[in-house]
Amino acid sequence: MPNVVVVGTQWGDEGKGRVVDLIAEKVDLVVRYQGGNNAGHTIVTNGKSIVLHHLPSGILRDDKVSLIGNGVVIDPKILLEEIEALKKSGYSVSPDNLIISDKVHVIMPYHKMIDISRENLAGNNKIGTTGRGIGPVYEDKYGRRGIKLSDLVNPDTFSKRLKTVLNERNLYLTKVLGSGPVDFDEVYNEYTQYGKELKPYMGDVSKILFDSINSDKDILFEGAQGTLLDIDFGTYPYVTSSNAGSGGVCVGTGVAPKSIDYVVGVTKAYTTRVGEGPFPSEETGEIEQRLREEGGEYGATTGRSRRCGWLDVVALKYAIRVNGISAFALTKLDVLSGFDTVKICTAYKCNGSLINEFPGSTEVLENCKPVYEEMDGWSEELTDIKDFDELPENAKKFILRVEELTGVPTWLVSIGPSREMYFELRELYS
Ligand code: IMP
């Protein structure tokens, strides 16, 4: 069986967690390759809602190995709490089924302080970050002043690194941002303890994946956020600070490009976005409110209301191109039940011209107005539907039209919040 990547094709929150959870059943290893606890995957299982922030969704299946690749950033306190919460809910989490790359970068208290202070200073120009320190920790990684898990678990190395970094970071915090400073002893004592607790989970993820590939094991690479939040291909600067697209897999886990065979693009039947930045098919008023309420569009991480609008095929075709999407998992189709008409954005009108390509410039995108194709809606509830043929005719037409506009087949359609509320149109990898 192939090695598969699951990516979000929109601005995150497409419902990747459940799709990953389903595919996880068919593979041996599940790997996260980027992002940190800015992500929040909600999985409803046995009537219980579980939110995963760092941990790959494979952790919910006892017989799978879950890995956190070097491209991920971890907040050790939150990660340890997440592990404890899962154990309390009866899931097994141990160094046998969870391996964290020695190369992951660690989110430190000053990263969170910098993130929040910067957003406050930016006022109307803020990005609307999750406030988890994600931008600052990736900055430190690329600025070569980061602290890796392999540093954290070694008290001497950690002490040296932290001293050097804090000298500079405290100057920045106090003189530029007017906050801090951060106390060395406090952070050192607290984080050394985290290092001790995480040490048993630390391993060489790239080597484990290499050996697994050579022994014909199957791997699922799990993306967080979405393509339009990707640091390179998203709506910069209103993006997260990692490569959320499939391109992030190789650098975020240490596998070779030839190891990736298949890419599932998780696409919500409408669009949502949290935080600031352009969103051409955004709705306001009654439609937005209805999508938000029906879809439960409130952030799993921050609880913020998500902005809502119609499906945007211009953006979707762009996501197909930059990720190499093989098939869709179309999620939350049930949320569109009850609309007299449903809309699909098929082009943009921008400064008097019609455009079909997602613009490279965020400024241009800000001036784009959606051009819609309107389709008749359906009133029936979808949650009990077991296959495509049982769908209302107009719901079938919606799916077929998305396939026609994009040229990408749909593998799976989700029709309700529970793990079992979905049906497949065709076999995965067919
Ligand atoms: P950061 O990742 O916290 O720096 O936030 C940057 C932008 O990405 C903000 O608009 C966030 O709302 C958005 N963002 C980050 N993680 C997620 C996610 O998991 N789902 C949706 N939006 C996210």
Give descriptors for this structure:
430 residues, alpha/beta, Adenylosuccinate Synthetase, Chain A, domain 1, Adenylosuccinate Synthetase, Chain A, domain 3, 3 domains, 10-stranded mixed sheet, 5-stranded mixed sheet, binds inosinic acid
Question: What does this protein structure show overall?
Answer:
With 430 residues, this protein is an alpha/beta fold. It has three domains: 4-100 and 204-259, Adenylosuccinate Synthetase, subunit A, domain 1 (Adenylosuccinate Synthetase, Chain A, domain 1, 3-Layer(aba) Sandwich); 105-198, Orthogonal Bundle (Adenylosuccinate Synthetase, subunit A, domain 2), CATH 1.10.300.10; 268-424, Alpha-Beta Complex (Adenylosuccinate Synthetase, Chain A, domain 3), CATH 3.90.170. Helix content is 33%, strand content 21%. It is built from 13 helices and 19 strands. It has helices at residues 16-24, 76-88, 109-122, 134-142, 149-152, 155-177, 184-198, 205-214, 248-253, 286-295, 313-323, 362-366, 393-406; strands spanning 4-8, 29-32, 41-45, 48-52, 65-68, 73-74, 98-101, 105-106, 202-203, 219-222, 262-268, 270-273, 307-312, 327-331, 341-350, 353-355, 368-376, 410-414, 422-424. A ten-stranded mixed β-sheet has the order 9-7-5-2-10-1-11-14-18-19, with helices on both faces. It is globular, with a radius of gyration of 22 Å. It starts with a strand and ends in a 6-residue tail after the last strand. It binds inosinic acid.
